[in-house]
Amino acid sequence: MLTTFDLDEAAARAIRQGASGFLLKDADPEFLLAAIRTVHAGSAVIAAAATRELFARFPDAAPRSAPPQYGALTEREREIFALAARGLSNAEIAEREFLSEATVKTHISRILGKLSLRDRVQLVVFAFEHGLA
Length: 133
What we know:
Layout: E1 2-3, H1 9-16, E2 21-24, H2 29-40, E3 45-46, H3 48-56, H4 75-85, H5 90-97, H6 101-114, H7 120-129
Parallel strand pairs: 1-2, 2-3
């Protein structure tokens, strides 16, 4: 979703319903092109400035019980899930957890499959909707 407005209800709704990205129209042309390529390759992009507002859209309620499919994750996958839900990139997770980026990508792929999620944006939304972040 490309918009002139900061994260508003329409953008939040689009992300909840599966939009693979959210960018402001004032993004640098190089960043916009890179974002388009990233989404085309199957990944997701959220403007860094919008991330804090996206998180604010989800209530800060007490943790709820995790959905059954979350129970299918291994302990290591839950650790990687938590870091990805906080917005860390594969490279940042790899550095922090002393893993290769390829291993992180494998974990993320398995997590997305087990949770029936399309991309990292949906992973973040899932985490916040279920009180897991």
